[in-house]
Amino acid sequence: MVVFTPKSLLRHPQCKSGFDELLPGTEFRRLYPDETEPIKSNPSGVKRIILCTGKVYYELLKERQQRGLDDKVAIVRIEQLCPFPFDLLRDELSKYPDADLIWTQEEHKNQGYWSHVQPLIQTTLKHLNMESKNFK
Predict the structure, then answer these.
(1) Would the pTM of this model clear 0.70, i.e. be above it?
(2) Region for residue 128 given its phi and psi (left: phi exceeds 0; alpha: psi -120 to 50; beta: otherwise)
């Protein structure tokens, strides 16, 4: 496995794993769903899903909290881009059928992972019969 990580996450208070995630029988998590309480308790209240990967997640989390959108915006981290976790993304998107979908990254659109993930996400939406979903 190759892991690319910025130094800023080495001491970030939210970027850590508990020992229970490192025990025998555990495995690498390809996708992290939004498991915050407001989102879990009322998935129908979610108006927007933000898909991301890497350190931008922590910046999005902070901004969502500052704007008071903890119950309206779900942030989903895709941590394995190849092979793409179609099954996990399908399950996550099906929880929020009426929400807009956004991919976000730090880099410009012509850099980063956008050109790789865009057709894969579109394929997932097609499988869910959500091709018309507002996806940017």
Answers:
(1) yes
(2) alpha
